[in-house]
Amino acid sequence: MCTAITLQSQQVETFFGRTMDFSYDIQPELYIVPKNYIWKNTLNMTSIRNYYSFIGIGQKLDGIFGFFDGVNEEGFAAASLYFAGYAQYNRQLPYLTSQQIASVDFLHYILGRCSSIKDLRIALNNISIIGLPDPVTQTIAPLHWIAADKTGKCVVIEQTKKGLKLFDNPIGVMTNSPDFQWHMTNLRNYMEVSPEQTEEVFWENIRLKPFGQAGGTTLLPGGYTSPERFVRTAYLKTHVPTPKNAIETIVSCFHIMESVSIPRGAVISSRNTYDYTKYTAFINTNTCEYFFKTYDNMQIVKASLFDNHKPLDQPFSLGKLAHPMFFNELIEL
């Protein structure tokens, strides 16, 4: 599970963010990865050099960095989401001329080497994504990816039995299965949803009046399945007033995601574990700033790629996302 969106302000700053909904225990940290960092391809241990520095949320287990989302110094941002039942990776072959990248490394690869959606399109022509078990789930996690740059362009990358495809994402929303094109077609089932108020109607001589406000949203789905979350998020992000500035955009982003954030206990996985929203994070792609909050701490925390002035040659952790919550108190003066 997970939901991702983009949102742009009147000042043409593009924000990119997501909820991390997961049924596995994770301890994510915020990392800064330096420019020109050389890392080992998990698939074959060949060396890969990053062209750009980036800041991202992820976790390191068994010597493997698994990044969930991030943004690089050029304002290119991306995130990985589950794509169960649809993701189908290539097999590792010794004679392939394309760059073979493990699915767990793909997000790291594009954040380190793409400055824009244009760069991403070019890079995908020379990439073969290979399924590899990740250290968190111990399975080959079925993934697809959403990416955006600071111009506001947004795309979805999906590897299925039809091959590796990149889709333009004009609505700037992504959830999980089915595939992205299905979700866009499904929006046609909700054309009558509206922020306007419903009027009274008559069935013969029976007068029917709406129950107060919000009658136009009656058709919006209310569950936590991927199609329902896609529809709710798409409706909200296309109907909120365009934010005037960065602060208003952050406020709008977090409010939109409140409608799809999953409380612990609302969804239980087939493994009898809670599947809930571990964290919600948004990125200002123009400034490379992160804004995030966790399930146990609703206070928004800010971090920037450019606030760290240490000369780095290795990834550096700014710390775990999890922090105890505190309360501001109003004291009589």
From TrEMBL:
Gene3D superfamilies: Penicillin V Acylase, Chain A (3.60.60.10). Residues 2-309 form the Choloylglycine hydrolase/NAAA C-terminal domain. It comes from the Bacteria. InterPro entries: CBAH/NAAA_C (IPR029132), Ntn_hydrolases_N (IPR029055), Peptidase_C59 (IPR052193). The keyword Hydrolase applies. The keyword rRNA processing does not apply. GO terms for molecular function: hydrolase activity. CDD domains: Ntn_PVA (cd00542). Keywords: Hydrolase. Belongs to the peptidase C59 family. PANTHER family: CHOLOYLGLYCINE HYDROLASE (PTHR35527), HYDROLASE (PTHR35527:SF2). This is Choloylglycine hydrolase. The lineage of its organism: Bacteria, Bacillati, Bacillota, Clostridia, Peptostreptococcales.
